[in-house]
Amino acid sequence: MIMKRGLLMIFLFGTLTSFKNQSDNFNINSPDGKVNLKISSINKKLNYQVKWAGQEMLGLSKLAIFPGGDLTIIDSKITEYNKTWKPVWEQFSSINNHYQQLELGIVSNKVKGKLYARVYDEGVAFRFVLQKGNKPKTANFYCTYNLPKGSNYFAPNGENEPIGPLQLSGLDDFQKAGNKGGSRKAIPVPLVVETPNHSFAALLESDLFVAKGFKNMNIDLDQNKIVSNNEASLTDDELISPWRVIVLGKTAGDLVVNTLTQNLATPCQIENTDWIKPGKTLWDWRVHGYIAPDGFKYGVNTESYMRFIDFAAAKDIDYFLIDDEWYTKVTKGHFEMSDKLDLQKVISYAKQKKVKLMLYYDIKHGEFGDDELFPYYQLLGMKGIKYGFMGPNVPFTEEAISKSAVNKLLIDFHDSPVPMTGVHRTYPNAISREYCHGQQDSRKAFTPEAFIKMALINAITGPLDMNNGNFDLLGINAGKREKGPKELNSYFSTVSSEAARTLIIFSGLVCIPDAPEAYAAKADLFEFVQKLPVGKWDESRILNSKMGDYITTARRHGKEWFIGSVYNQKGGTLNINLDFLDANQKYDVTYYEDTKETNCKTNPESYQVRQGTVKKGDVIKAVLAPGGGHCMWIRAAK
User: Fold this and answer.
1) Read out DSSP for 225-260?
2) In the chain, fewer beta carbons within 10 Å around the N or the C end?
3) 3-state DSSP: the chain helix, strand, coil percent, rounded to 5?
4) Same domain, yes or no, for 453 and 419?
5) Which residues touch 323 (CB under 8 Å, ≥6 apart)?
6) Residue 373 shares a structural domain with residue 230
7) Residue 347 belongs to a domain with what CATH number?
8) Matching PANTHER family, A to Z (predicted)?
9) Which residues contact 348 (CB under 8 A, 6 or more apart)?
10) Residue 7, phi then psi, degrees to nearest 5
11) Where are the alpha helices (DSSP H) in 251-301?
């Protein structure tokens, strides 16, 4: 594989208007004219304001690369860019990148550079670039957000339910709860804002991968003002900051299918991407201890893994992910293999069955060394690595992504990684990451309400590894697994909801965590999961969304539509309007849904599958049980 040389930072295309030293006030509009960005210099400090459809979304707010330092504007120009590009895999098969850009020549702290401000129909973004030469030792990409009074705020919260809705005082209390040692807790990105007029915004960053020297973005509350920071260590080389992004949406769901962060990311840096194959994977970790109907007990052993491989081959599941305990000890350049299984036999069997393997590595067990790790995985014939417990370390994450790409390995980051928004455009081998609460982990968050919040908050940052799709809910809640739950009867979902969740959460690697026999026992329901063309979507829409209450996601592949809905513990009816279907075309539809008896706590495995026909303009009244789900597979009638 040949890696492209350099990282292309910026495209300029279209009509150009230039002017120098005419004003310290600039107005720039989105292509559709609805988003207005005003940038001004007041007392040698840079400020900005954002309006959307005439409504003020952000009042006068500050923008700096050296907070407290003076900034002088020395020249400016405006460009327009409009081009469509095709991602390797995404929620869309093609993405239009259309914006107006203001480029300001600046001097701050005696350092020359540029500020790039882009205005899209869906939001705005800022990036600083400092010229090569002598600089101070540190910089800080500093931004304030003067949001409408009375707004509600939501944000990720690790392996806990996302926070919100909170007012500013509630955010302050969240931060005061703090980390160990009493320090204030930073607010993770994205911070989602619901304004009093029920518009939505998300505050986050993109293209951190190319911003060498920068830490990931944190959000804080300072004297009742929301601020964000990216600290950076400077050298004499050119400095490129991440993009600071403000995404706008009429609904919470609009933020999830917004393509702004992907458009801002550096284009793909892998020359040949033919080896990058998104898909579904089986996973062994949460199945350990499960006793199959024939009496076989799953664990870390060769026969268990061969059973997984057999099922994957039979159901056209692309991958099988082998988690921890295949080794016992790690030293530099060496794994001490577990005597519980014959890994080479498993590898040979998977190759025979044409099932691709992924293998876990936990850095807590010892330092193998990344220079040796990725070539070793490639030598084993692995197609990907699940990298565990690396922590929110930006340089480490960047190196792991690029080194895995050199060795033609997909990479899935486990447990509290850097979100690295947009990186799956730059390095599409970065297939997923657990920037959320994964199924059956600490169990502090897995309620229907928490899932819906994560689907509308955490997912804004890009593909997630959440491990949805458990079908043996009664067995899991009864404790018939070695790896959870820690608290019995604490997992509230329905099997229809579990199927819907595999579609709702966008990922390049949909990891389904249950036993093959659990799926085989509900083969008619598993059909929905089996048919999903993961990572090959032509179009994605959020049809219904309300934070913590419900979500409906629709994704198209060719002429097929897959639709999934989930509801909170109250349950309810959702209207699913099929106005996006082609006219003059009849469609067959399969419904996978709850029954009248279904309940996420008392009867989670009751479901029904039925057939029907639909056409453009039909409105499906989907009835969802408490904590329940609803799925539709729509295809052109034969």
Assistant:
1) EEEEEEEEE--SS-EEPPEEEEEEESSHHHHHS--H
2) C
3) 20, 40, 40
4) no
5) 283, 284, 285, 360, 386
6) no
7) 3.20.20.70
8) GLUCAN 1,4-ALPHA-GLUCOSIDASE SUSB-RELATED
9) none
10) -120, 120
11) 252-256, 260-264
Question: In 3D, which of 57, 81, 214 has the Cα closest to residue 141?
Answer: 214
Give the CATH number, domain containing residue 40. 2.70.98.10
Domain residue limits at 42: 16-264
With beta carbons less than 8 A apart as the criterion, state whether 576 and 606 touch. no
Q: Please state, as a whole number, how many other Cβ atoms lie within 10 Å of the Cβ of residue 508.
A: 24
* Residue reference for tokens 């340089």: 395
The angle at the Cα of 456, spanning 388 to 156, to the nearest 5 degrees, equals 50
The encoded tokens of residue 573 equal: 């009816």
For residue 89, which of 268, 356, 315, 312 has the smallest C-alpha distance?
268
d(CA 391, CA 335): 22
Residue whose tokens read 């327009």: 80
Gap between the Cα atoms of 455 and 257, Å rounded = 11
CA dihedral 169, 435, 406, 357 (to 10 degrees): 180
- pTM of the predicted structure, to 2 decimals: 0.95
C-alpha span between 244 and 257 (Å, rounded): 18
Q: Which is it for the CA torsion 422, 427, 432, 435, positive or negative?
A: negative
Mean pLDDT for back-to-back runs of 10 residues, the chain (638 residues): 44 38 81 98 96 97 95 96 98 98 96 97 98 92 97 93 95 85 87 97 97 94 92 93 98 98 98 98 96 98 98 98 95 94 97 98 88 96 93 92 98 92 98 85 77 97 96 94 82 97 98 98 98 97 98 98 98 98 96 98 98 98 98 96
Tokens of 433: 């990451």
User: Both 260 and 287 in a single domain?
Assistant: no
Sorted by sequence, the CB contacts under 8 Å of residue 23 that are 6+ apart come out as none
Cβ contacts of residue 302 below 8 Å, gap of 6+?
A: 341, 342, 345, 346
Task: Provide the residue count of the chain.
Answer: 638
155: tokens are 């944000």
In the block, tokens 């490639």 appear at 378
Q: Going by C-beta distance under 8 Å and a sequence separation of 6 or more, which residues neighbour residue 182?
A: none
